[in-house]
Design goal:
single chain; 443 residues; alpha/beta; inorganic pyrophosphatase (n-terminal core); Diaminopimelate Epimerase, Chain A, domain 1; 6-stranded parallel sheet; 6-stranded mixed sheet; 12 strands; globular; disordered N terminus; hydrolase; exopolyphosphatase activity; DHH_sf; manganese; DHHA2_dom_sf
Length: 443
């Protein structure tokens, strides 16, 4: 029942072949009735106005989850973003938690928020305080809450949060990444790979009862994920759904406009006092600069800044860090190649993965990206990378991003060799973790 708000539908499912509904029509009609009742009495503008803002309510639910409160029917819903913990994941988790009376979980330690400067800028103090961080979920808390906790996955569509010890009862999935075909028995499941931001999907569904403090955070996530709606990335970084969602968020924050076009969105002013940016393109630039500001960060902090984990088909646990600096700089911050190899092994052990990959930014001098790994030897992965595109399965070879990055035709450009106790290869500059990690998991 607490998922009812999230279960309300936006556009027709006929336009979204990857959207799945496993609950029967009668069940969904009941959820809709409950949703309308909840909206009228709790959040909907036409009903009784809430005494607390969305972020204040989310903070209160976080405190109740950590405390001794029994909660509604002694049940809890935790909304989990991806393990990378980027702005889109955090914003989506907050929005989903607000929609279903749940708790928004950040998949990193509280102290690591300081590494995510774009997230700090967008969240503000109240947004940061509303999140439940993984180091706050102690063994005692997990043991107490796990039996009655259900999970909502946002910004990813394969459960990988076993370490939280909150069970694996997935009731909802909302994402915009490649559909891995998991959790099709969820009450509500939507995966739209054409959408630039998961936050757009949440904004679309919650338009009728969106709160301004939440709309501000969602707008920031949409702006940076959609690259400020630059026309050059139309169709690859954003779609019409993102444009519509961004307009709806600005409607909540300021005066509405009749022109709902993409051009109008780029020129539409952001109300004063929200950000040090007057338009969405300017906001994307501001947040992008903050995201890529790695001044003063150590090599270990760079790993923690943008880290994901996954499990390969053979059971190998894989860690993948996207490093926001070229490889030579990353290696230098660690103290050299041997020190970096030791650090990768240490991080792999502390994160309970068998092997840890670090993928760096393109080096301006070589025009190549550096990829290094340490831990369990994965010769099959090396062979797969070096033999691509011939080694790619059809599912990856035909995937839009593999085609866009020309991996389907030119491969990764990989050639692995030893480097101070780790394995290292340069890759073509067009590649990204969104293609490298799926390839690792397959090979």
């Amino acid at each position: 029942q607490r998922l009812a708000q999230l279960g309300q539908q936006g556009p027709s499912t006929a336009h979204h072949p990857t959207r799945h509904r496993r609950a029967g029509p009668r069940c969904m009609r009941l959820l809709s009735v409950i949703a309308r009742t909840m909206a009228a009495t709790q959040w909907h503008p036409a009903g009784i106005r809430p005494q607390r803002s969305a972020l204040e309510s989310l903070k209160a639910r976080k405190e109740a989850f950590l405390g001794d409160a029994a909660g509604p029917l002694a049940c809890w819903t935790c909304c989990l973003g991806s393990s990378a913990g980027d702005l889109d994941s955090l914003a989506s988790a907050l929005a989903a938690a607000h929609a279903c009376n749940g708790t928004a979980v950040a998949r990193f330690r509280r102290e690591d928020l300081a590494l995510r400067k774009d997230c700090q800028l967008a969240l503000g103090e109240k947004g940061a305080a509303a999140l439940l961080y993984e180091d706050e979920i102690t063994d005692e808390v997990a043991k107490k809450r796990e039996p009655k906790t259900t999970l909502v996955l946002v910004d990813h569509n394969r459960f990988d949060a076993q370490s939280l010890q909150l069970g694996d009862r997935i009731i909802c999935v909302m994402d915009h990444h490649r559909d891995e075909g998991q959790h099709k028995d969820a009450i509500d499941r939507e995966v739209d790979e054409t959408c630039g931001s998961c936050s757009s999907l949440l904004a679309e569904r919650m338009a009728a009862y969106m709160e301004p403090d939440l709309a501000r955070i969602l707008l920031a996530a949409v702006a940076i994920d959609c690259r400020g709606f630059d026309p050059k990335v139309r169709g690859t970084k954003f779609s019409g759904r993102d444009v519509k969602a961004a307009h709806s968020l600005l409607d909540v924050l300021g005066p509405k406009v009749s022109d709902r076009s993409e051009d109008s969105l780029r020129a539409r002013p952001i109300p004063e006092g929200l950000f040090d940016a007057s338009t969405i393109p300017a906001l994307a630039k501001l947040l992008g600069a903050a995201r890529h500001d790695v001044t003063g960060l150590t090599a270990a902090q760079l790993i923690a800044l943008d880290y994901k984990s996954a499990v390969a088909g053979d059971g190998t646990k894989v860690g993948a860090a996207s490093i926001l600096t070229p490889f030579d700089d990353f290696e230098s911050r660690a103290g050299g190649s041997e020190a970096l190899a030791a650090l990768l092994k240490e991080e792999a052990s502390s994160r309970n993965v068998d092997v840890l990959f670090a993928m760096c930014q393109t080096d301006p001098s070589t025009k190549k990206r550096g990829l290094a790994y340490a831990g369990k030897a994965v010769e099959s992965v090396e062979r797969g990378f070096e033999a691509a595109p011939e080694s790619l399965p059809d599912a990856l070879r035909t995937a839009a991003l593999f085609v866009e990055q020309k991996i389907s035709s030119e491969g990764f450009g990989a050639a692995f060799s030893d480097r101070g106790g780790m394995r290292y290869s340069e890759l073509r500059p067009q590649t990204s973790r969104k293609t490298v990690l799926p390839a690792i998991l397959h090979f």
